[in-house]
Amino acid sequence: MSKPIRVDTHLHAYADASEGLYDINTYPIDEYGDKDDVAFAGVAGTVDDALAALDSAGFDYAALLGSFELPELPHPPEDARHWPGAPDYAHLSDDLIAYNRWLCDQGAAHSQLLPFITSNPAVMTSQQSEDHLSEAFGDWGARGVKLHPIAIRTFPDDPGLAGVYNACEQAQAPIVFHTGPDRRGFGWSEPREFVRLAADRPRLPLILAHLGGASWRDVPALAEASPHLMFDLSEVVNWMGAPLAPKAADVVGLIRAIGVERITLGSDFPWYAPGETARIVQELPGLSPEECDLILGENAARLLRLR
Known about the structure:
single chain; alpha/beta; TIM Barrel; 8-stranded parallel beta sheet; 10 helices; 8 strands; lyase
């Protein structure tokens, strides 16, 4: 019998330590409420840090997730759900392409890292995104896409993302979406916002991160309505027991309601370590070793065609 494969479907890494430390220190994690004993990874999140964390925990692969965010990007007008068709930051398209190229270069240099590139409708039109992503999937070794609706101030059904979805459908490349509430209540990444996308794109492989975050109670209805969706356990398991987070029994209940074959492990490194996240999952009450193997890698290996 072959050794179970271990795959982290939610890992970030940075070109240098200063970039990683900036993100770690400026990205607030407050949606779950206060919890004093959260074990953070305690590293800057360089590529070397990521590789060391994977090796020490015995992981075979990790999805290296990208995000191209614009801190100066304004919020859309209150009476407009979607952005206008013309990107206001088109002058940054070369920077976005270079960033995605860097992610793919890391994958070429390190077989453990599977590049998940990104897009931003404030930078590229739908067609430009489709053309760029198709090239990256075909020639650069990209394996998927990461989108953070809160960071790019965009609902999942925004027409500006249609080209992203077209390219991912064609390549059968999964998209990892951030899910959970945002501080100002716009609702960009709430679980309910993925219902329309899932219904319109049943062939689009999707992993919804954080099990809905602090909106975890809304996930079972979404999972039932959209049986092709998958979910990762990143971050939410590290905050179990916080006032607005699920307890361990709640997480197991969600896994049972969704189906264990639809759950993957994500660490959200460098905030949390892959090994610590795996330990937490393996200690969830009532999960069998076989079920843990599915979550810790076998489900992701099937999705990503790693076997």
